[in-house]
């Protein structure tokens, strides 16, 4: 939802722009956005080789949708393949919480160096949520243990942390469109978010950052 809207807006402003989707997995977002994609726009999916092989059992790359089976942390392998003469919008959905803090810091710094002025939108979890998951024994059901999620940051610390990685980075919180939630959640979530303490400790949220222009 929040990612579709952000990409639509990006392509409206930059019809020839490139979307780079980190850790795309089996996402089908590109099909939802087909009608928003102009002739000279490009979509680049990046995921680990095993995940990309699984994706390609169902979804094939084409001239406008490239698949790169490489780690996002192997910047030297994928960055040269992203056009530098056009605007770029990076997205990461369900990725950064699974990386170590140092890995995220490295990636942010590489993006800032190679794509000054570019935007990155991603989801993030809070530190308490990360700590709880990373103990490795958080069983949500009898058969499902929450995977380890080593990276999280509480909302009040977001600015300080990302600015220490990339000085001058602009950070915006992307509000959750609660009117599109199902059933009782449509009422419970806004109530929860109206309480300052709970809002600060919100377990998951969306951020958009803009890397400084050189
Ligand atoms: C929780 S899934 C999210 C998939 C998809 N974005 C979604 O929201 O449905 C995490 C994805 O991150 C990918 N991933 C993990 N580490 C990665 C890395 N270093 N580089 C690229 N992708 C990675 C996994 O292969 C997997 O596809």
UniProtKB/TrEMBL annotation:
Gene3D superfamilies: Vaccinia Virus protein VP39. It comes from the Eukaryota. SUPFAM superfamilies: S-adenosyl-L-methionine-dependent methyltransferases. This is Uncharacterized protein.
């Amino acid at each position: 939802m929040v990612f579709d809207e952000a990409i639509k807006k990006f392509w409206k402003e930059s019809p020839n722009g490139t979307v780079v989707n980190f850790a795309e997995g089996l996402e089908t977002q590109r099909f939802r956005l087909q009608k928003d994609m102009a002739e000279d726009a490009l979509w680049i999916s990046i995921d680990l080789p095993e995940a990309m092989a699984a994706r390609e059992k169902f979804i094939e790359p084409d001239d406008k949708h490239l698949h790169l089976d490489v780690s996002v942390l192997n910047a030297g392998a994928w960055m040269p393949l992203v056009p530098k003469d056009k605007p770029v919008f990076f997205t990461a959905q369900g990725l950064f919480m699974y990386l170590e803090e140092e890995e995220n810091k490295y990636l942010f710094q590489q993006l800032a160096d190679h794509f000054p002025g570019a935007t990155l939108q991603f989801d993030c979890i809070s530190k308490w949520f990360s700590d709880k998951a990373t103990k490795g024994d958080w069983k949500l059901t009898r058969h499902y243990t929450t995977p380890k999620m080593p990276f999280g940051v509480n909302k009040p610390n977001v600015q300080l942390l990302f600015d220490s990685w990339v000085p001058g980075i602009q950070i915006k919180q992307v509000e959750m469109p609660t009117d599109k939630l199902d059933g009782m959640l449509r009422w419970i979530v806004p109530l929860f978010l109206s309480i300052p303490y709970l809002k600060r400790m919100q377990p998951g949220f969306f951020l958009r950052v803009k890397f400084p222009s050189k």
